[in-house]
Amino acid sequence: MENTSVNNRWQSAKQKRYKAHIADVDGNLTSEKEKTEYLSDEIVKRIRKKLLAGIPFGVCSARSFRKNKMLDNIKNAVLDNLPEAAAKRFFLFPEQGTSAITFTTAPQGGVTTKEVDLAELFDILPGNKDILSDAYKAKLFDYLNKNLSVTASLEYKSPKKYGFLAAIKCNSPFSDEDYRKRIELITKEVNRLLASAFPAFSASCTRSSVYVAVKGACKELALKYFALLYNISKDEIVGTDDQGEKNGVGWPLTNHKAGFSTNTYDPESVFQIPLSLICGMKGKDAWLFLDDNLSYLSPDDIQ
To answer: For the whole model, what pTM was predicted?
Structure first.
């Protein structure tokens, strides 16, 4: 039944013409376990082809733009000798989509960047800004670590503007599958604790960490920004991510009528299309398969 419903959605998706694309990086534009600071030449070529055809393209990541080599490498590869009109259609959405980085190229060379805070633009922030302070985040982290009832602990991994990433430290070795299940279990437990003591925050899981952030500070902001900027609907914006499960960081990007998961997925979603069930591939290979099968129309060409 599940496969029939997914296949029907897939057949319908292939008949549509989408107007923009937002793609997660790690495990989506790269292979599932690939450790790299670069996108493949083929992926870069596909992105540039869309931009030159007038299709807006955004790269979304948990990484911070100012401090991350990979996002800078992606920017340089995609914008290399790209005409200004095409460059303006390229965006980076760092910190889980809570900000948008736009680019302007000059004929004589050089790139100018501009950052838009999407959490502020869409007014998702609580009135009490003190909860965004490092001291408050440290207090929140300590509370979670002291009150977890599962057999694991959290290790503070990296601060984010609207929260933090915490790695999972298990007391005994696990297989990859067991470790994944353990992360999902801990994420649910963290959300339970947050609901009772820190209700302004929620948690989602990455491949190896728990992302704790202000509610709404997620990749859905990138979809909303494209919809606002280009006057198109969210369902005309392809969203791809390798973590489409309900508590995954990619769920907000993939749980809509133009959402595609390139690895884990939410079997209860009536919108999301899990590509692993369609083509039997994951990660970058699944993304390339998707790109071979979808059609696009530039928002500029809409009459």
So the answer is: 0.92
